[in-house]
Amino acid sequence: MKKRLIQNLSVNAIQLIVNQLLGLGIFYVLSTGLDKNSFGQINLALAILLAAFNILSFGIDQLVIKKIAAGADPLAILSIYIFHVLFAGLIFYWILFSGAAFLQHNNNQYSIILLIGIGKLMIFFSTPFKQAATGMERFRLLAYMSVISNLIRCSGLIILVLLHHLNLHNIIIIFISGDVMELLFCAYLFTQSTKIPLKIKWDKVNYFQLLRESLPQTGVVLITSALARFDWIFIGFMVSAIKLAEYSFAYKIFEISTLPLLAIAPLLIPRFTKLFQQKDIDPYHLKFLVRVEMIVAAFIGLVLNICWSPVIDGLTSGKYGLINVKTIFILSLCMPLLYLNNFLWTIYFAQGRLKMILVSFIITLLVNVTGDILLIPFFKNEGAAIAFLAACIVQTIYYVKKNDIYGLANVWYPLVACMVCAISAGFIAKMLLPNSWFILPLAIVIYMMLLFITMQARLSDRKALKHLFNW
Fold it and tell me: What's 2's DSSP letter?
């Protein structure tokens, strides 16, 4: 039976909401319970480790989803991928551990990286089970596997707060415990649910074939990993851990606000792969999907900016609200661009245009890194946000120009229209009701009116929306 998009979307959205709420709880406890320097040190360690383990995947993770969705044997693919993560992960951590011998024993930052690295290694070992579940479109199984680590960490941190034992040492123990439990839980639940046995097999021919196939995607992963965390690492080392704490707080809330994108993105890879295999391409409904994504992205950006300072300053006792107003505004401008870029990337990935994707990420990385190096020393956190925005714009322009699907030539128009509607609505509402809690509902009403005026929202969209949910 063909699974409906609404079923998978609902399960994935629930999982993401639970995970984001737990992650938000973790983030809130750390940001308010630790001083900015310690909070910045933890985020610097996480930035380095997440970038490193993303690179170590070599792009095989996305290729595994695509192959399993296309009908490849899950057992054979999973066995090869498990071997890869074990081999690559253990080699990396051995190198990381060996590096401690060349550093001073009182290097607190490196010690934090080593300890948190144990947990992130366990998370890396669990990725084959999650990617296989995604390729099989077993999103309910994926949901169960994805929440265990955050559940343990959030619960553990709350207990530490209640017992007044919240400190850096205990926090790291909680982090490691949650990550180890996620690996054990993923392995057990996947094998029990799918009846696929856990096998680690050295298959030289198929392993190197998989590496060759993922080679263009490896470059993409290398670049996206650097792109995602270079600004954090650069701020942490070149400015200060305190500024990184402020920037990482704004960036984390920005990431949480992309929840709808996180919900739909995993669903699009297997779905688009099948569409392009069957040559069942409908430009009208693809354009409608883009329009819906742009409306949602711009709306979230509008709400985020209006509520930012009063809400965040109230929750963090003035630590991270007002000081990040400019940073969050710039980052929120990236949101519709990320949606459109993900949509086009998924199409190109399903088409197998990996070399073109690699070129796009090389260009994007150069823009982002150059912007960080030039702007962060002068504008600090705002400079990092501007560099990220510039990189997103360049990537969008490149993707739009490389689009060869008939009927999607003007796919960029909803992005521009919805962003203009959201910015205008926020500006008008602030002019009419400054310093009032009624500014948010007024801005939403104005935004909806502008959407209908610009034809981004139409009464006739009900039929297309029904078709989308039954896709």
Answer: P
